[in-house]
Amino acid sequence: MESKIEATRRLKVDGRWDEASAAKDREKTRLVESGMTRRQAGPLAWEWMIENFPPLSAADKAWRDSLPLIKIERFSSELLTGDDSEGYSINDYWWVLRYLVAYDLCIQRNDAAAAIEIQQRLLDECTSKDQAVLATLAIVDLPHFIHACEARVETSMFTLIDAVGSSGLEIDALAHFYDTLSPMGVRLEAFQAESWGDLATSGKYHELFAA
Fold first, then answer.
1. Dihedral in degrees, nearest 10, Cα atoms 128, 62, 193, 86
2. How many C-beta neighbours within 10 Å does residue 166 have?
3. pLDDT tens for each residue of 120-146
4. CA angle (92, 97, 101) in 5-degree steps
5. Vertex 75, ends 71 and 77: CA angle to 5°?
6. CA proximity to 188, closest of 90, 100, 71, 67
């Protein structure tokens, strides 16, 4: 098992120290309330924390690192909440896009196994029919998805630019990806040709449309 120093350093590097430390303190309080002394509870709480906050996998690290790149998890502007001509919201496109950003990070880090794990998560973690449709499109026809996403990002960006009082953060996020979607798409397509085809033809994504 890791030492306290090793675990603390790792969790701080991962950006999870505050969360893990707070959870450790709650566990220590629980143990004390169950009858242990604080001296007895301390080491057990550390062991509990180390066990429940293990090292991140390569895919987890890519997912964590994707958020600063995508800049925003969800758009809240009422101007963007409507669907496009295809019937999908900017937030559905953005949800899929974050997986593609994490996937792209794995490719740039030469970690094919992590990239494949991210693509599997994309299929497994859909929470709506629209997300499932766009996730499937990103797998079976990535150029089409990138083109549709570029069109929606462009439209949304200019909608906000023309509106009074729009969120600068939302405009910046859209502008960033308006410029970077195409080169990212080229990298993704090259890797997709080797791995995503097998996944798409495996029948896995058809489960998303059952019932």
1. 30
2. 16
3. 999 999 999 999 999 999 988 888 899
4. 160
5. 130
6. 100
- What span, in angstroms and rounded, lies between the C-alpha atoms of 159 and 153? 10
Distance CA 199, CA 121 (A): 12
Give CA–CA dist 209/10, Å, rounded.
40
Rounded Cα–Cα distance for residues 195 and 115 (Å): 9
Q: Give percent helix, percent strand, percent coil of the chain, each to the nearest 5.
A: 75, 0, 20
Query: Do 92 and 134 contact (CB within 8 A), yes or no?
Result: yes
The answer to whether the CB of 110 falls within 8 A of the CB of 192 is no
**For residues 41 and 167, which has the higher predicted lDDT (pLDDT)?**
41
CA geometry: angle at 15 spanning 11 and 20, to 5°?
Answer: 50
Pairs from 78-86 (Cβ < 8 Å, separation ≥ 24): 79/159, 79/160, 79/163, 79/166, 80/156, 80/159, 80/160, 80/170, 84/151, 84/152, 84/155, 86/148
The pLDDT tens digits of the residues spanning 30-45 come to 999 999 999 999 999 9
Contacts with 131 (C-beta within 8 Å, 6 or more apart), sequence order: 92, 95, 96
